[in-house]
């Protein structure tokens, strides 16, 4: 009978093994620390993309404001790191030692109240999850309970992204303004800047990424995952099957926000600064493009989309800085028009059948696990 | 119209129901009562407000005034999903099934358990669920299609699937909006057979244009015209009502 008894079906298992091999073994062995650190930066967007797969791909809720949550997570982490970097010894040349340098430049003479709890790492970790989570809960409740959806919701998330950017830039005494929070040095006394620390942080990030992949995959396989798909197609039918559609949308939106925030926190750690240029409208739309290019219905596809688009961005903008934005726009249009399921769709339509045929040719009798994957009825990617 | 004490045996009591869209009264001071285990068919010309009445009962449209009592509970103040949970099921005119899910998954979502966010995260596909899904699938002639995606079903099969999705909810009041519209002759016959089987032990409110079908199943017929009741009673009575013949049956 139809039972999803296994966590991954065969093609997902292959996807999992390939991604794990590339991220854990191949890239660390083949890239220098500078390039590996770049990959770490790309992967922070993969967290956002995984969230968008749940929220947009499955739930049909297009958020063009994921930069908000990426930023909130990143700023929470950066505030902790900045406080640690602003010890009294480090800042004794300031007129008020012991507060972050940008506060001193803005004539602030004592640490603002909302900064105080960020002396604690445990509080910071909680805040990275809870601040964006609660913010998404508030936005989600306000919008979805009133049945605001589709384009209207997307526009409102854009507005929120714009507002938050303006707020951060405007309140530079509290936030570091347009420059953001720079010169982050240590985490609990451990220097995050040297090469060996970058390598360790890379692996920490990859482990967290796989944890998020696991959570997303778990959600996808529960009835909740199927309700998200159902909701995307026939919202009324779900409602008249006895479900509160708004609550499910809020859940998907909050999960996407939390994933994005974890990505943002890892960005602050790996890249060593956080600024409003990762919060606003443009980065938020870019995050949607990563997901669309990778395939909005595929968790692994979204990770690949983030890596590949960012890699292209780095290589192209190094040589043709003006061309990059046109390239990105063209890429998005091409994906939407020609390959609505992105790279993972291309894989499933063109590559997977060839592999299957290859397997079938080599083994006249189909192996046992091939049988299972036909019977288990999991939605095909 | 004000209705005082309701006898207890009415399952559904609609009284003084009015809804106006920008001044246009789609349903105007409508009152009718459905008893337990009654099969009521609503007929009437296009634009009479038939579908709007179902929309009002299931909460899709909010009433401007009036009341809808289901087992003594006021439905006009409830949300759609709460109305479903009190035992009202609704089938839409065009088949609305989840095309990207299999027949099994479609039916499973309608199974009345784990309807909260947390409940659906911890929902287990256990024996009672599987048994009930298979039972219903057999009833709606889709037993060998459990693993088929709903998008691959024919129009008639989609209609059956949606009826099955309602069946698995086990509602006390089943509302069907043109269940045989767009079906082939053989599908029509099968659907009539299916409906005759599933209407046992529950009340049913049906909108239908097919008069032969109406005659077959209706206990009582309500004729709507311009948002108001034109005539009500047995099929025999309604058929011979000169007002009904003039506005509806005559042409």
UniProtKB/TrEMBL annotation, chain A:
<dbReference type="InterPro" id="IPR001851">
    <property type="entry name" value="ABC_transp_permease"/>
</dbReference>
<dbReference type="Pfam" id="PF02653">
    <property type="entry name" value="BPD_transp_2"/>
</dbReference>
<dbReference type="GO" id="GO:0015658">
    <property type="term" value="F:branched-chain amino acid transmembrane transporter activity"/>
</dbReference>
<keyword id="KW-1133">Transmembrane helix</keyword>
<dbReference type="InterPro" id="IPR017778">
    <property type="entry name" value="ABC_transptr_urea_perm_UrtC"/>
</dbReference>
<feature type="transmembrane region" description="Helical">
    <location>
        <begin position="287"/>
        <end position="311"/>
    </location>
</feature>
<protein>
    <submittedName>
        <fullName>Urea ABC transporter permease subunit UrtC</fullName>
    </submittedName>
</protein>
<keyword id="KW-0472">Membrane</keyword>
<feature type="transmembrane region" description="Helical">
    <location>
        <begin position="42"/>
        <end position="61"/>
    </location>
</feature>
<feature type="transmembrane region" description="Helical">
    <location>
        <begin position="151"/>
        <end position="174"/>
    </location>
</feature>
<keyword id="KW-1003">Cell membrane</keyword>
<feature type="transmembrane region" description="Helical">
    <location>
        <begin position="12"/>
        <end position="30"/>
    </location>
</feature>
<feature type="transmembrane region" description="Helical">
    <location>
        <begin position="323"/>
        <end position="348"/>
    </location>
</feature>
<keyword id="KW-0812">Transmembrane</keyword>
<dbReference type="GO" id="GO:0005886">
    <property type="term" value="C:plasma membrane"/>
</dbReference>
<dbReference type="InterPro" id="IPR043428">
    <property type="entry name" value="LivM-like"/>
</dbReference>
<feature type="transmembrane region" description="Helical">
    <location>
        <begin position="240"/>
        <end position="267"/>
    </location>
</feature>
<feature type="transmembrane region" description="Helical">
    <location>
        <begin position="199"/>
        <end position="219"/>
    </location>
</feature>
<feature type="transmembrane region" description="Helical">
    <location>
        <begin position="121"/>
        <end position="144"/>
    </location>
</feature>
UniProtKB/TrEMBL annotation, chain B:
<dbReference type="InterPro" id="IPR027417">
    <property type="entry name" value="P-loop_NTPase"/>
</dbReference>
<dbReference type="InterPro" id="IPR017781">
    <property type="entry name" value="ABC_transptr_urea_ATP-bd_UrtD"/>
</dbReference>
<keyword id="KW-0067">ATP-binding</keyword>
<dbReference type="InterPro" id="IPR032823">
    <property type="entry name" value="BCA_ABC_TP_C"/>
</dbReference>
<dbReference type="InterPro" id="IPR003439">
    <property type="entry name" value="ABC_transporter-like_ATP-bd"/>
</dbReference>
<dbReference type="Pfam" id="PF12399">
    <property type="entry name" value="BCA_ABC_TP_C"/>
</dbReference>
<feature type="domain" description="ABC transporter">
    <location>
        <begin position="12"/>
        <end position="251"/>
    </location>
</feature>
<dbReference type="Pfam" id="PF00005">
    <property type="entry name" value="ABC_tran"/>
</dbReference>
<dbReference type="GO" id="GO:0016887">
    <property type="term" value="F:ATP hydrolysis activity"/>
</dbReference>
<dbReference type="GO" id="GO:0005524">
    <property type="term" value="F:ATP binding"/>
</dbReference>
<dbReference type="InterPro" id="IPR051120">
    <property type="entry name" value="ABC_AA/LPS_Transport"/>
</dbReference>
<keyword id="KW-0547">Nucleotide-binding</keyword>
<keyword id="KW-0813">Transport</keyword>
<dbReference type="GO" id="GO:0005886">
    <property type="term" value="C:plasma membrane"/>
</dbReference>
<protein>
    <submittedName>
        <fullName>Urea ABC transporter ATP-binding protein UrtD</fullName>
    </submittedName>
</protein>
